[in-house]
Amino acid sequence: MVDPDEALVQRYLRGDQKAFRTLVERHTPAVYNLAYRSTNSSDDAADITQETFRRVVEALPSSRLDLPFKPWALRIALNLCRDWAKRRRPVSFTSLTFDHDLEDEDSVAEALPDLAPLPPDVLEADETRQALERALQGLSEGYRTVITLRYAEDLSYQEIATTLNLPLNTVRTHLARAKKALHDRLRQELGEIS
Amino acid sequence: MKHLSPATLDAYTEGSLDPAERLAVDAHLGVCPECRLAAIGLAEIGDLLRTHPHVAPPASLTRTIMAEADSAAARRATRRWLSMAGTGLALALAWLMLIILGGETLVAAYNAGLGDFAGLIETQPELMFRYPSETLALLAEAFPIVPLLLTLVVLGIAVWLMQRFFSELPRWMRTA
Questions:
Q1: How many contacts, defined by CB atoms under 8 Å, are there between A and B?
Q2: What is the 3-state secondary structure (H, E, C) of B40-55?
């Protein structure tokens, strides 16, 4: 039987380092993947992952134990990614708040998006995977974050709302807009290929 | 015809609507080809993203994290025990001072006639009610104010140190 995160946290706080190892092994891929999607660098992603767990170790003894562990750890990782982005782009960086994204890429607004399905053969092609990677990298960081949390980390809408500290409906709107933006970029990428 | 919002359509394709909302969307999609097309497009992007490979962390990362966590835990334990030892020592000193000062206060009170006063009140309690102001004046005269105040200050410090000592105990010891 798999121990839930909360039970592992309790055991760790009682001095069981093995419980912490299980938490690290369980969540390192998610934290690393999120950091990698934000930084596009394996070294920076590894540093951010390491720092995330260092902060988890520091914060756990005094933190509220009723919060789910994974969204909490991912929130720490996201804050580190934001700090990384600030250091990396001190001049051009604008905050990762979603208001910025909405102003920046709000061609969708609340109108029905133009989401014509992609050609079926395109979905299977290797080029599509590469185009998707490039399209993801071209998204704003806020959009990339919600997409990563939903599809790479398999978080529910509610867990994304907890991680980003946003209302549930806002998360739904951001995801829809992020997917529309991704769809547009993907079509653009695929158009360039063909 | 009014179209559905992108957020509603997306939540529909992700299966995150409640049954009533889902029925309403189903009914709309039955009569609105534009929304149907948009829903297919959103679902397609979702499917594509689900198959997008996860970026795997380096195999050594967990080992590095655990090594750091182990040394951080060891440092934290050392700091905690040092702090507890310091607080415990201060607490022991405070109690020792309390015993000495308390004893001195009692001796001083006895020498100042507090014992005679207590004996008087014990044998003739009605004096307290007949001459209340005089009784209080006698008591104040017999009571060693300075040693008593000092004793109370040390008692306060001892209580504060005790609270601090228990708050420094590991969480599992406090809840056990």
A1: 153
A2: HHHHHHHHHHHCCCCC
B72 touches chain A (CB under 8 A): yes
Asked if the model's pLDDT at residue A96 lies above 50, the reply is: no
Minimal CA separation from A187 to chain B, in Å: 11
Contacts of A117 in chain B (CB under 8 A): 37, 40-41, 44
pTM of the model: 0.66
Say which of A14, A21, A179 has its CB closest to residue B10.
Answer: A179
Optimal mutation site among B34, B44, B80, interface A, most CBs of chain A within 10 A: B44
Which residues in chain A are contacts of B48 at CB distance < 8 A? 123, 128, 132, 186
Two tokens at A8?
């592992």
Alpha helical stretches, state H, A125-167: 126-138, 141-147, 157-164
Count H helices and E strands in chain B, helices first.
9, 0
Buried b (16+ CB within 10 A) or exposed e, B90-112: bbeebeebbeebbeebbebbeee
What is the spatial distance between Cα A153 and Cα A26, in angstroms, rounded to a whole number? 12
Residue A77 CB neighbours (<10 A): 27
Kindly report, residue by residue over A42-62, the tens digit of the pLDDT: 999 999 999 999 999 888 877
Ranges assigned E (strand) in B32-117? none
Interface TM-score (ipTM) > 0.90: no
Chain A residues with beta carbon closer than 8 angstroms to that of B34: 112
d(CA A189, CA A180): 14
